Automatic annotation (TrEMBL):
This is Diacylglycerol kinase family protein. It is found in: Cell membrane. It is a multi-pass membrane protein. It comes from Trichocoleus desertorum GB2-A4. One of its GO terms (molecular function) is kinase activity. Keywords: ATP-binding, Cell membrane, Kinase, Lipid biosynthesis, Lipid metabolism, Membrane, Nucleotide-binding, Phospholipid biosynthesis, Phospholipid metabolism, Transferase, Transmembrane, Transmembrane helix. CDD domains: UDPK_IM_like. The chain crosses the membrane at residues 29-48, 54-73, 80-102, 122-148. The keyword NAD does not apply. Its main location: membrane. The lineage of its organism: Bacteria, Bacillati, Cyanobacteriota, Cyanophyceae, Leptolyngbyales. InterPro entries: DAGK (IPR000829), DAGK_sf (IPR036945), UDPK (IPR033717).
Amino acid sequence: MSPDLSTQTSNKVSDKVIAKPNRDLSWRVAANLWISFKYAWAGLSYAFRTQRNFRIHVIVGSLAIGLGAFLRLSAVEMSIISLTIGAVLAMELLNTALESVVDLTVKQSYHELAKIAKDCAAGAVLISAIAAILVAGSLLLPPLLTLLQSTLR
């Protein structure tokens, strides 16, 4: 278990022991830049470990960067591909955050507004992923087709 989810203290209520998660610092503002980066890394690590689609986007994005480097795309083209990959990953992180907050709010019950919020966040990820595919396709396909044609001749 991660340290912020481990049991720190417990209260005895009648004959039950209720465990409190160690979330002492979860509400505080980071004291310095290093702590801010630590929190951000914790979010990225959480998303990578728990979110299948985040891992898929990381793998596909890495392949696109690798293919762009192999095809020797210009710095501007590589920057555009990198920015679109970054946008998709950022949207996936926001989607995960929103889903967590909605789940925290509605607990195990169904609520139509919770469904709308989660579906819209997922839709935002989908739109950014489609845009990234279009951008990468327009930048990677022409040189890739040229390379394939020259190899087949």
